[in-house]
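Hypothesis: this fold can be encoded by more than one sequence.
Test: take the structure tokens below, design a sequence, compare later.
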């Protein structure tokens, strides 16, 4: 397939153009920008004009960037803002109305609409980058030596074990986390293979590693590890149980949005050390009953408006820069490049968490006295650096990079399953949502090195063999 993506790419910017034409009507402009992301999802994935790799049906390639990375990144960045915006307009759960605030425009309305337009521009640029780089004829350079999937068992156990061990040493986190996730992804693939082939060995090993990790995530007090585990298992099962996963999607999403914030808030009691994580978990399950319905709804609405969407934080930065602080230019990028230098080679290396939080404190997004970590996201750092042009050009590069890394992983690891599903979506899982520049540059740089080290290891162990033209 040699489709030129020019027409498709130009189509993506139609809602962007309309949203900016309507800039003086903030509410309408916001909704055009919000629906614009749904338009891009449809146009780039489901429409007849979509340019999709023809080597497999769509449901068998959903973990490629144009599907999974786009849906998670843009879904989080663009569509979750609807809860905050409706709350701003006086609605709660779309039913309870504060008539004093209902559909009245203010400076904040204009700021929210401005951020939504930039988010839509970023979404269009992200997909543009993917389409420009997407290789529809990936030339596989390696093949598996063994017909059996037994190598996934050893890869899962060894990599998960090394990753778990490395997590005990703070300095090795950059290596530990990607390796652990590779092990979990191997386990998820083994799990689904065990179910499909009724292979008890694959099923027991895959399910054991995956469930142990899921239980560990449920005791962490963080929502993201739980959600990521559910996304991974849903994606690996989807090609084989498409209708079943689609039927489950809505109720599972509802349960996560309704119960998870309250559950996690209770589990976090263990952070103070007064109770164990297990005791906090038991208390969390006790809290999730109908008697606490009002508390659950309050907690969840707060989560959906303030935490699920980060558009409120975005508006604070847009209000701060450039009116109260000039654009940062290359400052954030330079800090991020410094962060790539190992501390062993530079004893005076600044703490990247401290460096990245400075602009958060300066903009008044968080207070230095609070324990909260309100790190920026890629689109925010791109805006802070160069304004709207920065958002476009950085997100264009972001899409190109994500697509290149996925294609390269498939090329060297011998195809979609090991290359994209296991390696790309594990090592570069941070690309799903993005992070601030300091952490993201670090994750991508070291992730790239880890990917090649694993490739060399598998070639050395003769798990992979070269393919000669």
């Amino acid at each position: 397939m040699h489709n030129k993506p020019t027409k498709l790419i130009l189509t993506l910017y139609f809602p962007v153009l309309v949203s900016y034409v309507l800039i003086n009507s903030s509410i309408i402009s916001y909704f055009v920008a919000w629906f614009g992301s749904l338009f891009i999802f449809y146009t780039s994935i489901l429409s007849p004009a979509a340019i999709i790799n023809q080597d497999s049906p769509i449901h068998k390639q959903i973990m490629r960037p144009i599907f999974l990375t786009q849906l998670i990144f843009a879904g989080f960045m663009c569509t979750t803002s609807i809860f905050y915006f409706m709350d701003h307009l006086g609605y709660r759960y779309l039913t309870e109305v504060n008539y004093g605030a209902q559909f009245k425009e203010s400076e904040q309305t204009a700021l929210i609409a401005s951020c939504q337009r930039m988010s839509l521009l970023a979404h269009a640029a992200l997909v543009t980058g993917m389409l420009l780089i997407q290789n529809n004829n990936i030339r596989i350079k390696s093949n598996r030596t063994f017909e059996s999937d037994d190598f996934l068992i050893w890869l899962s156990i060894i990599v998960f074990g090394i990753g778990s061990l490395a997590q005990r040493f703070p300095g090795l986190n950059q290596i530990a986390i990607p390796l652990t996730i590779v092990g979990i992804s191997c386990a998820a693939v083994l799990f689904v293979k065990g179910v499909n082939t009724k292979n008890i060995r694959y099923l027991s090993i895959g399910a054991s590693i995956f469930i142990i990790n899921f239980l560990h995530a449920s005791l962490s007090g963080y929502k993201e590890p739980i959600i990521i585990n559910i996304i991974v298992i849903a994606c690996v099962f989807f090609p084989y149980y498409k209708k079943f996963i689609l039927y489950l999607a809505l109720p599972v999403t509802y349960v996560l949005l309704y119960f998870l914030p309250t559950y996690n808030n209770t589990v976090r009691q263990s952070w103070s050390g007064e109770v164990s994580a297990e005791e906090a978990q038991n208390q969390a399950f006790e809290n999730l009953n109908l008697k606490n319905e009002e508390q659950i709804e309050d907690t969840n609405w707060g989560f959906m408006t303030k935490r699920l969407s980060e558009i409120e934080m975005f508006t604070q930065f847009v209000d701060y820069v450039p009116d109260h602080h000039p654009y940062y230019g290359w400052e954030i990028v330079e800090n991020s490049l410094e962060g790539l230098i190992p501390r062993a080679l530079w004893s005076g290396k600044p703490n990247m968490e401290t460096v990245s939080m400075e602009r958060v404190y300066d903009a008044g997004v968080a207070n230095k006295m609070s324990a909260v970590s309100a790190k920026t996201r890629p689109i925010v750092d791109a805006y802070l650096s160069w304004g709207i042009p920065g958002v476009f050009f950085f997100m264009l590069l972001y899409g190109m990079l994500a697509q290149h890394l996925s294609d390269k992983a498939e090329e060297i690891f011998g195809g979609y399953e090991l290359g994209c599903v296991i390696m790309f979506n594990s090592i570069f899982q941070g690309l799903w949502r993005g992070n601030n520049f300091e952490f993201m540059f670090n994750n991508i740089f070291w992730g790239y090195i880890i990917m090649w080290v694993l490739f060399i290891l598998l070639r050395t162990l003769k798990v992979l063999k070269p393919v000669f033209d």
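The first strand starts at residue 91 and ends at 92. The chain has one domain: 6-466.
Hypothesis status: open.
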